[in-house]
Structure formats: structure tokens, C-alpha cells
């Protein structure tokens, strides 16, 4: 068995469109994470669609994407849609804090498992914990949301074990709650509650979110014993703003804007997780800058 530190360190970018994907792949980047809600907004770029409680894979588009992957030798992982409402008629309205949404949420993960097996796209899937408030109005109590999410993950876990799913679902830590949108996941204990009786789930560590959650501890996150598979590695000034999302800057990572930066580098050096540079606006960076950010980080890790 080869030690993990022998592996190549995969570093890539989060992308919101085919144009962004094509750009970074032409630069030689070997890992991308697709923002599903952005891709699914454009008919020709949809990964899948939801209509009348049925998910349909866009096979024609995925065949083109698979051809690109084969030609350029890169990997694709997925970021689940960000919730914008609580309405199971829409992909961005499915919320596992509600028991009535569980069947559809499970069908979505079953569809993504089929997608991975058929097209080798999206083995690693990042998911946010459920939203509990919009526009300053809490529509479900946190303790109820946590309990219902636990029911969901335990049910999905059983399906994944019985059917031997190959996808890796990673829950992502969040900032402290905002007025516009408040999620659970800003404390490690939330993940302990949701995933306590499961075997098949992992974690995505978001370094920017961690800096905007005053009581969040990466050490306590690690003590849960869940695998750290994926990192969203980006920084900010660490000044939490409840009224908007401008504090979550998604800036290039540096020792100045990521708390415990060198600890992360040591972890990467030993464990070789996937690293996504989740930058807010790729268009603001030149091709040279995008290439150097990946190369410089890989050099620092190695």
C-alpha cells in the first residue's frame, strides 16, 4: 500500500460555467469543481434537470464533458445547489431539514451516483448543511433541523452501504448565520449530531467559512473522526458581517488571510486531500496568475 504522501497533490478551481471550465482546463489544471446551480441555469450546460419530482441526466452534455476529460486528463467534482428557498419543486429549494423533502433528496443522490458510474463525473460531492432562515426569519428551529437532517443522513447512509455507492458525499462547514440566509454547520457539534450513526460521509473544510465562524474549531472538527476529503482553500479579512456576504471574499489563500495557514500546509503534505481554490471571480485573474497560484501551492506543499 502506497503512502498518501507519495501521491500527486491535486489542486484545482471552482467553476460556474463551461466557459470558465474550458479556460482553466486549457491552462493545464487537473481538478475542477462544478457549481451545479450555475450550470443548471443554462439549458445547454445543465448537468441534470428536475421536473415533476423526476431528475433527468443531461446525457448529451455529459458525453461532451467526458470527452473533454479524456482528452485533457482532468477530474470533475460537484458542489450541490445552494438553497434559495424551501420549495421541493425546485432543485435549489430541496432542504433535508424537512421530512417531506427526504424522498426527493435521496432520489437526487441516487441520480448522482448513476451519473458518476456512467460518466465518471462527480465522485466527490460537496453539500452544505440545511438552511434554517431566510431574510432574518427562522422557518425551522435548529434542533428540529438537526434531528431531521440526522434522520435523512442515516437513511441515505443505509442505501449507500446496501447499494455500495462509489460517490463520496462531503458536508461543508459554514459561517455564522447571516440575515439573508442562515445555515446550520457553523459548529462542529452540528456535524456530530447529523452524522453520528453513519459510515459513508466525509467533510469538506472551507477555510474562509471557518474564519467567519467565531466558535468554530478545526481541532474539534477533526476530533469527529470523519475523513477530510476536500478543502475549499481561500481567505478573507476575518471581519464577520451579518447583513451581507461581502465578508466571505473568496480571495487567493495566504498566511495573512487564512487562520492556521501553515497547519493546513502540513496537513496537505501528509494527507494529500483534494484542494479547490474557490475564488469569487476567476475573470479578475490572468491566465498566468491562475497557473502560478496552483503551481506555487503545490510547490509549498511538496
CATH topology term: TIM Barrel
Largest sheet: 8 strands, parallel, barrel
Strands side by side in the biggest sheet = 1-2-5-6-9-11-12-13
Quaternary state of this entry equals single chain
Classified in CATH, the superfamily is: Divalent-metal-dependent TIM barrel enzymes
Report the total helices: 10
What does this structure look like?
With 302 residues, the chain is of the alpha/beta class. It has 10 helices and 13 strands. The strands form 3 sheets. Strands 1-2-5-6-9-11-12-13 form an 8-stranded parallel barrel. A hairpin with a 2-residue loop joins strand 3 and strand 4. Helix 5 crosses helix 6. The longest helix is centred in the middle third of the chain and has 21 residues. It starts with 10 loop residues before the first strand and ends with a helix. The mean pLDDT is 96.
Précis, in short:
The protein has about 300 residues and is α/β, with parallel strands linked by helices. It is built from 10 helices and 13 strands. Helix 4 (about 100-120) links the parallel strand 5 (about 75-80) and strand 6.
Secondary structure blueprint with pairings:
Elements: E1 11-15, H1 18-26, E2 31-35, H2 36-39, E3 48-51, E4 54-57, H3 59-72, E5 75-79, H4 102-119, E6 124-127, E7 131-134, E8 137-138, H5 142-162, E9 168-172, E10 181-183, H6 188-195, E11 201-206, H7 207-211, H8 218-222, E12 228-232, H9 261-271, E13 274-277, H10 287-301
Parallel strand pairs: 1-2, 1-13, 2-5, 5-6, 6-9, 9-11, 11-12, 12-13
Antiparallel strand pairs: 3-4, 7-8, 7-10
Helix pairs in contact: 5-6
